[in-house]
Amino acid sequence: MRDIAEQSGLSPATIDRVLHGRPGASARAVRAVEQAVLDLDRQQTQLRLAARTLLLDVVVQAPSRFSSAVRAALEDELPALRPAAVRARFHLRENADVDAAVAVLDGLGRRGRVSHGVVLKAPDDPAVAAAVGRLAHRGIPVVTLVTDVRDSARVAYVGLDNAAAGATAAYLVSQVLGDRPGDVLLTLSRSFFFGERERADAFMATLERIAPGRRVHAITDSDGLDATMGTLVAALLRSQANVRSVYSVGGGNRAIASAFTAAGRGPQVFIAHDLDEDNLDLLRSGVLTAVLHHDLHADMRNGVRQLMRAHRLVPGAPTCVAANVEVVTAYNIPPRIHAR
Prior knowledge:
Elements: H1 2-8, H2 12-19, H3 27-47, E1 53-61, H4 64-77, E2 85-93, H5 98-107, E3 117-121, H6 126-137, E4 142-145, E5 156-160, H7 162-177, E6 183-187, H8 194-210, E7 216-219, H9 226-239, E8 243-248, H10 253-262, E9 269-273, H11 277-284, E10 290-293, H12 296-310, E11 321-323, E12 326-328, H13 335-338
Parallel strand pairs: 1-2, 1-3, 3-4, 4-5, 5-11, 6-7, 6-8, 8-9, 9-10
Antiparallel strand pairs: 10-12
Helix pairs in contact: 1-3, 4-12, 5-6, 7-8, 9-10
């Protein structure tokens, strides 16, 4: 019951009511207990392996296709993590929301909610940076994942080298298009994710240098969700007949492809990020030209290692680990991912 209480963030009394079917527990509490039991069941093999246990909180604001991949990657890595056993709680939200991120971060380590570290994907906002600082003051280290929170007290960043990825996307678009005319659509989920801004800025700067004069149209604030993205792209295509290529920084790629089909034209080049299930299908079917990939499993290993360093469980100080970008086409999908 103590483990379930820590995992769910609820009181032992509430856990007791839910487990024994007594009145007084809300439907939300019941769902939280059920999720905690499922998490603990998946992670129990790792928990038997070491005497010291780190309880980490994974706070991710992203579409479920990405947050689900983060959860799966971390839980795949748990049995191999040393020297401490690691247990994880997940705080996942599809929409980017600064206030919601701050509320979650401020709740960690308080009211009996033990936390030994945070893996964070959240907007680059002063309020989020301040919340990270409050965690650091309470001795809870934070590692940012795939997008950084600048001017914060986080101990390390792990994830893709976003500037290199944006420049690579510009190179691919330029090479595939060659001398053919056409504008480029650049889509972001939210401009206040620092990693997305890095990709977009590097893409536009590089494209201007190697293919001067090729116009870029940007769409943002869709949260990377298909419904919103589809509406925004369809509206742009109606007004911009010259858009022929796509660099999708923030996802929603099924909706982007559908909007092009409805407009009666397909993108000549379509570059995306992350080998999630949607992108694998689009890559295999030829809709996507290439996916800019990095190993999320390695990100999770590196992130947990930096948190262990912060607790002096392994040698060295926490260090930022930026992953190289890998260009994946339908013909070189990594074997572990190809088997899905």
